[in-house]
Amino acid sequence: MKRKRLAGTGLTVSLFPFLAVLVCTMGVLIVLLVLVVRSSEVHAASARREQAQQLADRRESLLDDLDLEEFRIREIEAMRPDLRQRLAEQRARRSHLEDEMRELRDHAAALANQWESLNDPQTVVESREKVADEIRSLEAELENEKIEMARLRGKAADEALLYSIIPTQAPGATARRPIYVECRPD
Question: b/e per residue, 7-35, with b = 16+ CB within 10 A?
Answer without folding.
Answer: eeeeeeeeeeeeeeeeeeeeeeeeeeeee
